[in-house]
């Protein structure tokens, strides 16, 4: 069963075509929607919510038509916008209870669900304070909570990791993964970083300038370009030389070394080299597979 | 940073109610916002101070009735006499109903639910109408209860009281439609307050100006139309026609014909609601 399906979907604005002849289907689970800024991700979500009429083609969400059954769709889906959308003078509890009622939940059920969901997204005592005093990470959690409070079948999360620090990013991604697996709610999550979505998605849809570039299960994305970024305090040249000796492809990028990963032995090699040379290892980070890489690959394939 | 507690996720399989429920929830939420309930203490100061000022003449009136057996302020005159307070309430609280959702872009959170723009606007207008109505009707009712309890000689003025309550509702709808329309054109609260206040002051100040100009040029019949420029006198002229109450214009000057006043009132309410609808159609498309 498809959770959403589009057929030749097109959206033209006076000056730009945001979605262009898009035909794609998405199944249950966690689906990443990847594209550079302005690729048409947010426009696509608005069409799927039945908030923007398409200029051409059709789209169905949970087998409901977006143009004629928009209200039915909005009853069953949750939406976390990309931009800031929280009033500062109310508490998270008050806002989420209110929005649950707006989705049709009776008051007592709304209170229970709001308390549950706020705990799931990791907001504790601070949920009684006005949102104006929250950090970006807490605000993102409130935005996520309001999208889940009415127990939707599908949630659309528009750039949920926007503005978060690396740790907040990891926590948010773990939470998104849990929603798709443990909570049993299908997730469509957008990002302009493919590397981020690789970690949590079952399926990835790549769009560029409103056109479908690629739609495939995560395993099909090539792993051959995987890299690891190494940062050491000093002695970068020595480390690069040592790794090259052991047959690794190493390219310096400013203060960082980018090493091609051939398998688990690469990590061992980096560790041993750093230990042997008595270097101060600051960072060892899996390379982010950037959207640009996919574009480059796609162009190369053509 | 807080930890994520590992308690399993529970699905919701209870009832999902329809539009009437969400409409009521939004109206109640907005009404709470107008009076600062569930908001920080400073949000409560202005609305409740204005309510207290509105109640003062009613309390004085009851005291007059109890002590010297004489009526103080007439029911039908209450809104006109206290118009500055009602106008300040409208100006200070209208932006709290519409501005935060526009300024902080909360509207998409509503529109991504089964709530239409029309439902949203209607619920906001309903909330503001109830708030203004309560502001005027509560002192009137207090005064009426006082009159019945004090038991003045002669019958209590039940008819006049009922009429003034009905007109308070009409006044509330007119003010709510205009207040929200003006406030919704700017997402900034301060500007919203100022714009509502300026329009009220202009509508008040223009009455003696237009009246005086027409009167001095010998156009007495035309001069009486000047009263309709101010919403409070407009509603009073309809009241005067419907319930036969004396005009509460300055020095009791006569109003123009009643049916025409009613038509103007209805047209103005429609214009206010229309402006709101246009404003939100644009806001929703963003």
TrEMBL record, chain A:
Residue span(s) of domain ABC transporter: 4-234
Domain of life: Bacteria
Keywords recorded for this protein, A-Z: ATP-binding, Nucleotide-binding, Transport
Cross-referenced InterPro entries: AAA+_ATPase, ABC_transporter-like_ATP-bd, P-loop_NTPase
SUPFAM superfamilies registered for this protein in UniProt: P-loop containing nucleoside triphosphate hydrolases
A molecular function GO annotation: ATP hydrolysis activity
SMART domains per UniProt: AAA
PROSITE patterns, per database record: ABC_TRANSPORTER_2
Similarity comment text for this entry: Belongs to the ABC transporter superfamily.
Protein name according to UniProt: ABC-2 type transport system ATP-binding protein
High-level lineage: Bacteria, Bacillati, Actinomycetota, Actinomycetes, Streptosporangiales
TrEMBL record, chain B:
Cellular compartments per GO CC: membrane
GO molecular function term, any single one: ABC-type transporter activity
Domain ABC-2 type transporter transmembrane, first and last residues per copy: 64-270
Keywords: Membrane, Transmembrane, Transmembrane helix
Bilayer topology term: Multi-pass membrane protein
Compartmental location: Membrane
Highest taxon, organism lineage: Bacteria
Membrane spanning stretches: 45-68, 74-99, 120-145, 165-183, 190-211, 260-280
Cross-referenced InterPro entries: ABC2_TM (IPR013525)
Protein name (database record): ABC-2 type transport system permease protein
Source organism: Nonomuraea wenchangensis
Taxonomic placement: Bacteria, Bacillati, Actinomycetota, Actinomycetes, Streptosporangiales
